[in-house]
Fold Guanine nucleotide-binding protein subunit beta.
Amino acid sequence: MSHRSIPSSSFFGELRTRELSGLKVRQRPYLGDLSSDAAGFIIEHENNPSPPLALSFCESVGKSHILAVSDEEGFVSFYDTRKNLHCHSSCWDKTAEARVSQWVAHENAIFDICLIKDDSHCITASGDQTIKIWNVERRKCIGLLIGHTGSVKSISSHSSNPDLFVSGSRDGSLAIWDLRCNSGINCHGVARLLSTLIVKEAHLSSEGSRTRRVKAHSKSVTSVLYLKDDISIASAGAVDSIVKFWDTRNLKLPISQACPDIKSFSKKEKMRHGISSLSQDSSGVLLSASCMDNRIYLYDVLHLSDGPKKIFRGSKITSFYVKSAISPDGSHILSGSEDGNAYLWRVNKPESAPVLLRGHEKEVTAVAWCSTEVGKLATSSDDYMVRVWNIKKESCISTRSPYSMNKRVTATPRKLCRKLNMDETESRSKDIANRACISVETMMNSPSPLKTNLLECATPKTLKRQKLGIILSEGPDMQRAPDPEAAFDSPSSVLNPPSSSRRRTIRDYFVQPSETIKSHLCD
């Protein structure tokens, strides 16, 4: 179930929030300064370490800090990445303290794991040629999916229907599954399911098709994706760098495909390279493909005919275990590497040098992004370690406008606010009255009222007008100015002059005799 954001209660509520906290400016954070615990999690079972093969963060609200890990021994483990681990603890103690649960899911390696139904269930793809559906809380298998004749390398769920997902296998096929269609119950009470649709030889080599025996690696489907339009599927294989797109309503032939421009490569680079993984952002517009030519290609799904939109270089992708992933907001790309480092690029600056995440001792394989916490990611390695990286607190970019007040606003009860406002108003009134009386006394005691600074807080224009009025008031024929509270107390009233025997001019309305000022100030 998707969680929608709650809109603001009213327009005035938004204005009030803007006045208190400033104008919010959405900025993509810079992830160049990441930190990781010195130890991290070591994947082990009864003190026997096992290389992790797949990672996946939970996506539901309240569980995004839980990380699911599958390994080569067939275990599924869940870890709390927010666990406050003691610095003096060893790797083994930290792992045991952060582990939420684990169980044996397969008798073979688990190459991929996918969380569905608000993270209450998970799907595991194994080298035993089967796919299993698990109830996470009960750690019980509730579905067994059979049909592939090779190791299942990749799985991907439907974005809006958790009962649908697609799988890719080393036997060269991709299959679509519907958990609502079971073909019976076995003796252990587990539902047995068969694929609803299957495409065989989805990525078959043209050279291999002419021979009797086709090598498994030349036809293997290494990665599959259920695209965000909920109709299309993307797949990649080990034979070449072509990404194929399929329409689930008609799987006879791919509807489109994308590949890098081979003509722009040198002669040494024109050999065939497979793809180890595919990933997409939350909108489904951008799709990344990590290729065995040590490049990561970024495609625009809406303009596949244009080829790769951007190319990222630097990591060493020498095996199909090395994966890459684009961030949910589509701003960064994270990749493993054979040299023991993880590489991080900014999508809008592919030519810039990537950020190196150092900390692993062997090949970095699987990577994962947290969809709800910006800047949080995880990497796994053949050194049996899983590291969780976060943005350092001092490197976080503020989302406030530079023109907003850089201070924390504390909410105050309404009654207290009224009392404070009343006290402040009374104190200001007394202060103004005291200043006015002092000014009047100063003016009356002064030998020349014209030289006193009557209103020090007045604007320059107002002060000039007041002085001009006092000077003009000494004339013998000058009449008294009208009451300031009258209808004609501004220069604009000249356009509609009052009925009088003498015609007034605009300067009449700026005259303020000292007596009028004194009476108003004392009031």
Observations:
- Residues 414-445 form the longest helix (32 residues).
- The longest strand covers residues 110-116.
